[in-house]
């Protein structure tokens, strides 16, 4: 049975989560010493740029389903947003996607320079793992930091974002089949979404395997739907609405779902994946209303 969601209540609760996250990020990514002032400025430029904070919201929503207090979720929520921000800085570089606009502002390498942008991305990534390693709340009453670090590191590396980005570049001007394309999506985009949902599970050592499996399955399907929607927005969106240049994928010869199979087929695939994600989520115990509400935001977003 589908859950009935109070949209206004969910919206208000998750706005509170975003405000909570912003305070934590501001506290944890504070200006450094004078010698690194420009680097810290670039880090904060990349981090506080109007992002929707969807991945941290998934951390809090997953925590709700597991009965966890927000206080123990702040560190992983910050960590996934730091990793996401670092990945965008590096993806925008001339050697990668060569983008000049991110969320309506010049990309970090244009606002500063390429060297500073590279270092800012490196430092944001390092800070994510530092936060997880040093956060006292993650090791009492159960030692959860190591599990979170492992989950997030896997999502970042060759079996996650970095590997997916490498595949993305290798597939430029190619015509991959659907399975190859979606494998790349699962790594490049889906891995961090999966980590966002699964990191709170480290705080529940006696979590039934079936509960963990349905959360992971939900994350896999919704992450794939999210990337296909992103591809559609590049084709059908407007630059001043989505905050980045539209048509960039086609200009760079990127392999995309609508480019290979058409926009209508892409919309049907999103609907199919959304249904699979919700079916998995409906098998979960706990309060999954937040995850259902966020799933709507992820697959139906216009920016």
What this model shows, in words?
- There is one protein chain.
- This protein has 303 residues and is mainly α.
- It has a single domain, classed as Orthogonal Bundle (Farnesyl Diphosphate Synthase).
- The chain has 15 helices and 2 strands.
- Strands 1-2 form a two-stranded antiparallel ribbon.
- Helix 2 (37-47) crosses helix 6 (114-134), helix 4 (74-91) runs antiparallel to helix 6 and helix 10 (209-236) runs parallel beside helix 15 (289-300).
- The longest helix has 28 residues, at 209-236.
- The radius of gyration is 19 Å and the shape is globular.
- The two termini are 30 Å apart.
- The mean pLDDT is 92.
Q: What is the residue-mean pLDDT, rounded to a whole number?
A: 92
CATH architecture: Orthogonal Bundle
- Percent helix, as a range, is 55-70%
CATH class: Mainly Alpha
Q: Helices and strands: which structural class?
A: mainly alpha
Counted beta strands: 2
The biggest beta sheet is recorded as: 2 strands, antiparallel
- General shape: globular
Relevant CATH superfamily? Farnesyl Diphosphate Synthase
Task: Tell me what portion of residues adopts beta-strand conformation.
Answer: under 5%
CATH topology title = Farnesyl Diphosphate Synthase
Radius of gyration: 19 Å
What is the count of DSSP helices, taking H or I runs of 4+ residues? 15
Distance between the termini: 30 Å
Strand order of the largest sheet: 1-2
Number of domains: 1
pLDDT below 50 for ≥5 consecutive residues: which ranges?
A: none
Order of helices and strands: HHHHEEHHHHHHHHHHH
């Amino acid at each position: 049975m589908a859950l009935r969601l109070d949209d206004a209540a969910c919206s208000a609760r998750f706005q509170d989560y975003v405000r909570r996250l912003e305070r934590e990020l501001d506290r944890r990514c504070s200006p450094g010493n004078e010698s690194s002032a420009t680097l810290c400025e670039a880090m904060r430029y990349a981090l506080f740029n109007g992002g929707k904070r969807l991945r941290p919201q998934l951390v809090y929503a997953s925590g709700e389903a597991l009965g966890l207090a927000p206080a123990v979720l702040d560190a992983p929520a910050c960590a996934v947003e730091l990793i996401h921000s670092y990945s965008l800085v590096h993806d925008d570089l001339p050697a990668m996607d060569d983008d000049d606009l991110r969320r309506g502002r010049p990309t970090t390498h244009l606002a500063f320079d390429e060297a500073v942008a590279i270092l800012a991305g490196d430092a944001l990534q390092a800070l994510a793992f530092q936060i997880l390693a040093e956060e006292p709340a993650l090791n009492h009453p159960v030692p959860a930091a190591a599990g979170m670090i492992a989950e997030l590191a896997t999502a970042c590396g060759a079996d996650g974002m970095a590997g997916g980005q490498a595949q993305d570049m290798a597939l430029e001007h190619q015509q991959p089949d659907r399975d190859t394309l979606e494998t790349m999506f699962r790594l490049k985009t889906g891995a961090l979404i999966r980590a966002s949902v699964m990191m709170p599970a480290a705080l529940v050592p006696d979590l039934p395997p079936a509960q963990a499996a349905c959360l992971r399955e939900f994350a896999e399907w919704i992450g794939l739907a999210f990337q296909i929607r992103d591809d559609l927005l590049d084709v059908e969106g407007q630059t001043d609405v989505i905050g980045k240049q539209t048509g960039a994928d086609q200009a760079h010869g990127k392999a995309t779902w609508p480019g290979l199979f058409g926009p209508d087929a892409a919309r049907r695939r999103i609907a199919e994946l959304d249904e699979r994600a919700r079916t998995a989520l409906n098998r979960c115990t706990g309060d999954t209303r937040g995850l259902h509400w966020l799933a709507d935001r992820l697959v139906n977003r216009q920016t």
